[in-house]
Predict the 3D structure of the following.
Amino acid sequence: MNVEVMIEALPKLLEGAWLSLQLLFISGFFGVLIAVPLAIARASQNTAVKALPYAYIFFFRGTPLLVQLFLVYYGLAQFAFITENPILWPILREPYWCAIITFSLHTGAYIAEILRGAIQAVPHGEIEAARALGMRRSTTMGRIVLPCAARIALPAYGNELILMLKGSALASTITLLDLTGMARTIIARNYMPLETFLMAGVIYMTITFVLVRGLRFIEHRTSAHMRPRPTGPAEGNPAAAE
Amino acid sequence: MEAEADAASAGAADAVLAVEDIHKHFGRIEVLRGISLTAHTGDVIAILGSSGSGKSTFLRCLNFLETPTAGRIHLHGEEIRTRADRAGALRPTSHRQLTRLRARVGMVFQQFNLWPHMTVLANLVEAPRRVRGMPRAEAVEKAEALLEKVGLADRRHYYPAHLSGGQQQRAAIARTLAMDPELILFDEPTSALDPELVGEVLTVMESLAAEGRTMLIVTHEMAFARDVSTRTLFLHDGRVEEEGPPDDLFSNPRSERLRKFLSRLLT
């Protein structure tokens, strides 16, 4: 094994890693924006309201991400009304935006299911309390249900984020030089697949490690109400003071 | 503005709450078989009955957490407008009217139902701010005064999970009081509490009754019902079996069922 080759490849690989991170966070952000209304509709009691998000989620969970990516990148270019559209075409001819759009739609479907489960896990009594106090449905959703659901969904969302990091390697199939794409380009020149892919793998693991740590930090910060109260010297134990 | 066209019906105009002939079916089972009730300002009405008698369901129908199948409900002379849906339940016609009326009726739950992701203070501030649009500083000031009143001033920055059951229920009562309700519904407020924590909650409720607040209390605390209520209802099988001043009901139960119910509880 040639360590020198690995170090040589590092700057280019980090460049690729930067693109992977962009794909991950931009699609992660839009994925959440897509998922919130989908999840609210999915948690509805109304069958008609549930149907559309159900179909959407069924499609995006039922087909491989690679197929979805090809459909957007190669498939949409078949339609004249897209290639002739002055707004859509400048976006859809760029592999970068094709990847962002596909990943957002894909991760959005998964996040929506995670969030739907979390919304339905919010105890009904908390919602009744809000209703009994005269809160409108939208206020109840925004102030009570979603904040509780977000906290419930966070661990599963972290898992989805890590899966998306590795899913983003598929961007390399539509000419993007993300971490995987960059590794393949380097190998085409240096013929050292072991060293180069190993280095790429180490970078993926490092990113995952930072993500896991970051998520754990956020979980900790948002769960003060679920932990036993830290007994400070000033206030003492609340149970004992009763 | 509040008094609408049908206010005069049933002479309900001066009553805080007027309920006419409420029925409720769960499928083919009829849980409420026509209950009527009028509450005037300062009334403290205790609702007794064995489990399954429909007392909680009745209370929950009053602010439409449960939809009755038939009947009319007036709050301060204003009837909650409803229409029957296909399943036969009465749906509120105007969600806006319902939320407006709900904001004037407090409710205290058996399971407290505080919002776990907010501190006690935030729980109290939430509804006045989001429903009434009260400025934050004013809502906080009011919340702190109420927490003082229920003896939780030093717990205002605690999360509900860090409080005892009795403290949580007192906080929930304070949360309801923050909306200045004209009527407070208590749905078995002490049934989920450890016996030694029941007293602190009853003390708070007693002080509310002494202030002249209008309250409807579903409870199993017989001594409390007897001492604090101005009127007592005994429900059996979805009907009002007996009704009157608490002393009459407890000392001279007329019906066999109430006699049995009392003897089972008092011995």
About this structure: Residues 195-210 of chain B form the longest helix (16 residues).
